[in-house]
Amino acid sequence: MSKLVLKGGSRPPWVGLAAAVWVQIAAGSSYNFSLYSHLLKSVLGLNQQQLTVLGVANDIGESVGLLPGLACNRFPPWAVLLVGAVCCFVGYGAIWLAVSRTVPNLPYWLLWLTHCIATNSNAWFGTAVLVTNMRNFPLSRGTVAGILKGYVGLSAAVYTVIYSMVLRKSALDLLLFLAIGIPILCLALMYFVRPCTPASTEDPSEHNHFLFTQAACVLLAVFLVSTTILDATTTPSNAVAYTLVAIMVVLLMSPLAVPIKMTICSVKTKKLGPRVDSTEPLASGENNSSQIEPLLTPSSSATNLGSFYENDESSDVETLLAVGEGAIHKKKRKPKRGEDFKLREAVIKADFWLLWFLYFLGVGPGITVLNNLSQIGISLGVNDTTLLLALFSFCNFVGRLGSGVISEHFVRSRMIPRSLWMMFSLMLMSVAFLLYASAHTVTLYVATGLMGISYGVLYAMMVPLASEIFGLKNFGVIFNFMQLGNPIGAVLFSVLLASTLYDNEAAKQGSITCIGQECFRVTFFVLSGVAGLGSILCIILTVRLRPVYQMLYAGGSFRLPQNSGH
């Protein structure tokens, strides 16, 4: 791995976080499938199962991120973002050529492949900014993950506003925007997403900065929902529409206020410590280096660490002497939970597969609803599903940002594992499917809101949870392996279950479009049981992880464990 040049100072991490907000919006392009899927169906003459398989291609593309995960450990973030921009241009460009009939008779398998390439850009975008910012803010992982994943959740609403007010609901223009606009945006921002020197102690002002960023995020979410409702109930003029879009852009830029404030204000900030995993001394001339306090006082954390690791370090001196004398050969110690794991070391752990399966049992049903949201609405008499998508996006954002804030509070104050909140979200998801099955217009909106919250919590909690159990060193690879639950769940639940039953019901009605509660009813009952099974796995994982979190957060703040030596 080539050594990355770290940017020093207190402002650069916040500049990178502000840039990451825009990249995360770009990384939500797969949510647009429901906005242009009807065009694919009508222009290319696809049936529901063929359309669903293209939706699965979306899920496979954005979730197969092992290559981006490996690349994050070998190349700088700008190189990873560059690959994503190329994938986005090639993929969405090819889809636009097919739908616009510029290239007629594009084979179905090639159309499927272009969807994979297009949305695989999201894996490159998301991995680059998520891994970089988690490493830049290692002491606030839950908060950072909640913010970044929250903006991804809002991306569907952002695209809906652009689609409705700028592109005037032209799906063809939307595809062209995705092919050209997103790559240009990421090329413009890739310099600012870079690894920086994080603090080894908590900066008192950091909490206020995160609060401001979260407040800006909430304000953007409220604005997007209000704008979507306004557009659905009225027909705003061009001047009003462009003004609303301009306000949205300003709100998206609001996280930049933090580094700007840090630049303009002449307040003396506390000197930040060295990079947390660095063994290099501080720069010469810093006479107060001995006054830097450790991350935690030894009293509480040392006691917990000693009991948790069963006094592994009690005989370190004797072992080193024996190794020096040749009496014994020192073997590399296997990492323990909370330390840095390689992927091959993580996959043999029970906690790894418990986390993978509960994530799979949650996002699989969730992505099934998202891929079929338009058809679900139409089957129940809601022909314009724009509002449904905006509702899902807003609630998805609430789940992502809210779970980050709430879990961070309870993990520091009560040392409660984040998997507990995943359990609650899966229970909520199970209830949401039962509401869908009731087949009423009101419960359709309520269920979509609950589904968005549950889906958002699962995504936001898996990120810090995986990094806390298996470390940040190979986080990109481990995180993207977890993401494989998304396309596998989509194949099983969306293609083999939902679309098959839907087409069967449509055939009974003598049409390619199914109308009525029977279209998805059996699917909803099955998925409710699947989500319930996932909540049981969450309980098991939470019990297993409680001692890990008692060790990591024994002093009320995250304690970076000792390096496992690899």
TrEMBL record:
Q: Where is the NFD4 C-terminal domain?
A: 348-549
Which GO CC terms are listed, alphabetically? membrane
Membrane spanning stretches: 12-31, 78-97, 109-131, 143-162, 174-193, 214-233, 239-260, 352-370, 376-399, 420-438, 444-465, 477-502, 522-543
Q: Which CDD domains match?
A: MFS_Mch1p_like (cd17354)
Q: Origin, by domain of life? A: Eukaryota
* Region Disordered, annotated ranges: 276-297
Q: Domain Nodulin-like: where? A: 13-260
Question: Where is it mainly found?
Answer: membrane
- Biased composition, class Polar residues, residue ranges: 285-297
Instruction: Give the matching SUPFAM superfamilies.
Output: MFS general substrate transporter
The subcellular localization recorded is: Membrane
Transmembrane helix recorded as keyword: yes
Q: Sorted alphabetically, which Pfam families does this protein's record hold?
A: NFD4_C (PF23262), Nodulin-like (PF06813)
What's in the keyword line of the UniProt record?
Membrane, Transmembrane, Transmembrane helix
Topology in the lipid bilayer is annotated as: Multi-pass membrane protein
Q: Which PANTHER family match?
A: MAJOR FACILITATOR SUPERFAMILY PROTEIN, UNCHARACTERIZED NODULIN-LIKE PROTEIN
Q: What is this protein called?
A: Protein NUCLEAR FUSION DEFECTIVE 4-like
Source organism of this protein record: Cucurbita maxima
